[in-house]
Design goal:
globular; alpha/beta; Rossmann fold; seven-stranded parallel sheet
Length: 252
């Protein structure tokens, strides 16, 4: 019989959040800190924004630090995990939120854009998953971020949806590979979510049309996604494993 690990209390848990300086990743970092977790806020280039997230967590009585890493660089990612272990004693939750997007019809997408997209979204997810699989303590959780466009198949999202489809398969395979480790592995696939990245390049009519597609008739918020991620990363969500959670307000 598996026994409960001491890391199964939120107050003793440590989280690494990639892409934690902005958007959904920022909301996730704040939500996990709100549960009492110590948080390593991963970022690629936005040091000021990452530091601001750390300051907000600390102002609320939490523990956090920022760690720069290109998620596709295994040495840099390993150093972020080392940082978590040195500062807080270990790693119990890993949320991989870092990603990029490039929108164009398949026939017209520049292959350099395709390669850059997949370097971050596919290789980056794989590199973070490798470290998470090696480091997360028993009772812990790994949560990746996919996208509901994998199922919705919007035009111009071909390369992005393909990269997130790869993330979903990796997530479900990793859940099987960690049999006996007492570590859950899931993906959250947001629908249209009101982030800076989402609004970029969209006119008001397009945004309104996307908001109407969900039966709840609004865009998701970063906090909506963070609440779902935080549940999966917490002891309360530990029995959910190997799943793709489409957090999209009911869009089909």
């Amino acid at each position: 019989m598996t026994t409960q690990n001491s890391t199964n209390t939120a107050e003793s848990r440590v989280a690494v959040v990639t892409g934690g300086s902005r958007g959904i990743g920022r909301a996730v970092a704040l939500a996990l800190a709100g549960q009492g977790m110590a948080v390593v806020v991963g970022y690629a280039a936005n040091k000021g924004e990452a530091d601001a997230v750390v300051s907000e967590i600390e102002a609320g009585g939490g523990r956090a630090l920022a760690s720069a890493a290109d998620v596709a660089d295994p040495d840099a990612v390993a150093e972020s995990f080392d940082t978590a272990e040195r500062a807080f004693g270990g790693v119990d939750a890993v949320v991989h939120s870092a990603g990029r997007i490039a929108l164009a019809p398949i026939a017209g997408l520049d292959l350099a854009e395709f390669d850059a997209l997949h370097r971050t979204n596919v290789r980056g997810a794989f590199v973070v998953a490798q470290q998470a699989a090696r480091r997360v303590r028993p009772g812990g959780a790994i949560v990746t971020l996919s996208s509901s466009v994998v199922g919705l198949r919007f035009p111009s999202y071909g390369a992005y949806a393909a990269s997130k489809g790869a993330v979903e398969v990796m997530t479900q395979v990793l859940a099987q590979e960690l049999r006996g480790r007492d570590v859950s592995v899931n993906a959250v696939a947001p629908g249209p979510t009101a982030t800076e990245l989402f609004f970029e390049g969209k006119d008001e009519e397009t945004v309104a049309a996307l908001a109407r597609r969900a039966p709840l008739e609004r865009l998701g918020t970063p906090e909506d996604m963070a609440a779902t991620v935080a549940f999966l990363a917490s002891p309360a969500g530990h029995w959910v494993n190997g799943q793709i959670v489409r957090a999209n307000g009911g869009i089909v």
